[in-house]
Amino acid sequence: MKKICLFVHCACILRGIIVSTGIVAIVFQANDSVHGSEKRPERSVNIVMEDQFRTRHETGTLRGDVVVLVYAERHGSDAARSLGRRLHIQFHPTAEKVPLSESFRQPVVGLTDWPAGIEVPNVHVIAVACLSEIPKPFHAVARAKFRSDSPHVPVWLDFENIMKKSCGLSLGIPNIVILDTEGKMRDTRSGHVDDREFGELTAAINLLRRESEPRNRAVGSGPLPSKKQQ
After folding, report:
1. Backbone angles phi, psi at 141, to 5 degrees
2. Residue 126 domain-assigned?
3. Domain containing residue 184: CATH number
4. Hey, which residues does 185 pair with through a beta bridge?
5. Backbone dihedral angles phi then psi of residue 186, each to the nearest 5 degrees
6. Three-state DSSP string of the chain
7. 3 lies in a domain?
8. What is the rounded distance in angstroms from the CA atom of residue 79 to the CA atom of residue 76?
9. Number of domains the chain contains
């Protein structure tokens, strides 16, 4: 199951006022959470969220693949949307040439010298809308809007401010969390990403993909290089 970054514009009612909120975020709920800038890279997490159709999703079902979470509050939405789309296309080049409804079903790019007969790990870039400003009575309104704007691609919805509580959130800029193929939180980044940093990010993701190769598993996991945080 492949998912792409999809960021939509949600019109919602907040405290009796009609608020037009640009929403772009990726948020998660983990069994083993990370607080602030602290990481526990040796502990697996299971990120659980419902989408706009009330369908439950878990990153635990994606073990064997790398999961990339790109998130931002509304002031960082444009940059996060651009980064998420760019990441998805980087690892699924054919996604750029097909309709949006088919984009997240495109095959992942291979790895050089990957052994024959072993499936190459995928890279899932998952979109989750951060909706903590919306009061509970209007959650159904938000879901309906997302169903209308995103009828094909699931968007994970967070109404509980889980991202800020569990991992921290830098305002006005994209934030990234990366889970390795065992579901371990291996990297967190925040800030605008230039071409050099994008290259470092994709290299770090490919490093995690290669770690899953049987002959590399004995090496063990550790911090990824070129981590950028602001």
Report:
1. -65, -45
2. yes
3. 3.40.30.10
4. 179
5. -110, -20
6. CCCCCCCCEEEEEECCEEEEEECCCCCCCCCCCCCCCCCCCCCECCCEEEECCCCEEEHHHHCCCEEEEEECCHHHHHHHHHHHHHHHHHHCHHHHHCCHHHHCCCCCCCCCCCCCCCCCCCEEEECEEECCCCCHHHHHHHHHHHHHHCCCCCCEEECCCHHHHHCCCCCCCCEEEEECCCCEEEEEEECCCCHHHHHHHHHHHHHHHHHCCHHHHHHCCCCCCCCCCC
7. no
8. 6
9. 1
Give CA–CA dist 26/117, Å, rounded: 33
Cβ atoms of 94 and 107 within 8 Å: the answer is yes
Q: What is the pTM of this model?
A: 0.76
In this structure, the number of other CB atoms found within 10 A of the CB of residue 180 comes to 24
Q: pLDDT tens digits for the chain (230 residues)?
A: 444 333 333 433 333 322 333 333 333 333 443 333 344 445 788 888 888 999 998 989 999 999 998 887 778 777 877 888 899 999 999 999 999 889 989 999 999 999 999 999 999 998 777 788 889 999 999 999 989 987 987 888 878 887 777 777 788 888 888 999 999 989 989 999 999 999 999 999 999 999 998 777 655 555 566 554 44
Phi-psi category of residue 15: left, alpha or beta, with phi > 0 → left and psi -120 to 50 → alpha: left
Considering the domain boundaries, does residue 230 fall inside one?
no
223 within some domain: no
The residue segments making up the domain with residue 134 are 9-216
Integer angstrom CA distances of residue 116 from 22, 112, 153, 193, 213: 45, 11, 32, 34, 11
Q: How many CB atoms lie within 10 A of CB 219?
A: 10
